[in-house]
Design brief:
The protein has helices at 19-23, 27-34, 49-60, 88-99, 112-124, 139-153, 176-204, 216-219, 225-245, 270-275, 285-297, and strands spanning 79-82, 103-108, 129-133, 158-161, 207-212, 250-257, 308-311. The protein is α/β, with parallel strands linked by helices. It has a 7-stranded parallel beta sheet, sandwiched between helices. Strand 2, helix 5 (112-124) and strand 3 form a beta-alpha-beta unit. Helix 4 packs across helix 11. It is globular. InterPro entries: 3oxo_ACP_reduc, KR_dom, NAD(P)-bd_dom_sf, Sc_DH/Rdtase_CS, SDR, SDR_fam.
Length: 321
């Protein structure tokens, strides 16, 4: 079972300071906070203030549709690449993105037959799809995969970094090879695919990236020091990449699943595990895929970047990260 401690502390705020000082609000917003009745201004939230504020925000966002708050129909993603897309969560994500209208590149490392089956299912929906073999920890293979994607589809709108492995062992018994294999694929692989996708997305000034991390990266797990380190690294990498890419309208977010009923959880004492989950059950790949689809394709997610979305049945309630 998972073992974890309570959060270290709770942040506090000095309420005696003006909100404009605490948050350093933009000049436009500060002018409304300073406004007082009878002083020629309007209080924040008043009916008379809202239209004026909206107009000023529109003027300050020249060249950006609707102040960048809502993506236009033309911005809806069309081409997606899913690493580790032949099975489990990756398979569910690839199919869900196809249902939402994306053409999909299904990456796989060894399960060619399974990847081909996913491609066939996507094509049966009326979307285009190809299967591309690549080890995401190998830079040359990653670059070739992205080149093949552009050659076929001319662009890339969505990247879902899902490929991952486990090589479990207690810390004192873990071999360096076990450590390196997991770090190379689960963390370096995400970095390499992020780098390759950003070269395309930053140039086209649009894109959605979703990294699949894990609740283990937030709360740890005995016997998975390598996996926890890699998935925790993915969370930090997500935040750093989001800050670098935001100015070009490329969003980067992470999803952290808990125990999901896939091949990776096969053979575990599932009944015992379920007892430790507030919702009392394991999650399904399709539930994770629905969250990924929202972050990757929904116009309502255009203003979300640099955040971690935990989907774990409540397992990690109270954890930070």
């Amino acid at each position: 079972m998972l073992l974890f401690a309570n959060p270290a502390g709770i942040a506090t705020f000095n309420v005696s300071k003006p909100l404009s000082n605490v948050f350093d609000l933009p000049r436009i917003a500060r002018s409304y906070i300073r406004a007082r009745p009878g002083a020629g201004g309007s209080l924040p939230g008043s009916a008379s203030a809202i239209p004026t504020l909206r107009a000023r925000l529109r003027r300050s966002a020249t060249g950006k549709a609707a102040c960048g708050l809502v993506a236009s129909v033309a911005d809806v993603p069309k081409v997606a690449l899913v690493t580790g897309g032949s099975r489990g969560i990756g398979r569910a994500v690839a199919l869900e993105l196809a249902r939402s209208g994306c053409d999909v590149v299904v990456n796989y490392a060894s399960a060619e037959a399974a990847a081909s089956e996913v491609v066939a299912q996507i094509q049966a929906m009326g979307r285009e799809a190809i299967a591309v073999k690549a080890d995401v920890s190998n830079q040359e293979q990653v670059e070739a995969m992205f080149a093949q994607t552009v050659e076929r589809f001319k662009r890339l709108d969505v990247l879902v970094n899902n490929a991952g492995i486990t090589r479990d062992g207690l810390l004192l018994r873990m071999k360096k090879e076990q450590w390196s294999q997991v770090i190379d694929l689960n963390l370096t692989g995400v970095f390499l695919c992020l780098q390759a996708s950003c070269k395309l997305m930053l140039k086209q000034r649009s894109g959605r990236i979703v990294n699949i991390s894990s609740v283990v990266g937030q709360i740890g797990n005995p016997g998975q020091a390598n996996y926890a380190a890699a998935k925790g690294g993915v969370l930090s990498l997500t935040k750093a990449a989001a800050k670098e890419c935001a100015s070009r309208s490329v969003t980067v977010n992470a999803v952290a699943p808990g125990f999901i009923a896939t091949e990776m959880t096969h053979g575990l004492p599932l009944d015992e595990i379920a007892k430790g989950i507030p919702l009392g059950r394991l999650g399904q790949p399709e539930e994770v895929a629905g969250l990924v689809r929202f972050l990757a394709t929904d116009p309502a997610a255009a203003y979300i970047t640099g955040h971690i979305f935990t989907i774990d049945g409540g397992l990690a309630i109270g954890a930070s990260g």
